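Weekly puzzle thread! Below is a chain. First person to post its structure in token form gets bragging rights.
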Amino acid sequence: MEQRDLDLIAKIVDENAELKGLYEEHIQFEKILEKYESKPFLTPEEDLEVKELKKKKLAGKTEMMSLLEQYRKAEAN
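Winning reply:
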């Protein structure tokens, strides 16, 4: 995520409960994925979980970016 997006999230996260939830979930997924990435070997179950987490993280990021874009458009008007 770009710094300008992170700055905007920090600015409006307290105003938007949906954005706050998505951002907190995104951070949790990052932490879990970091733990898996630090392992030298993943079991097939762990590998599957990593793939699912990455999908969920991407879906959440897409939603966050959509909310940020809506906010930017409303701010520009």
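Puzzle host: Confirmed. Bonus trivia for everyone else. The chain has one domain: 3-76.
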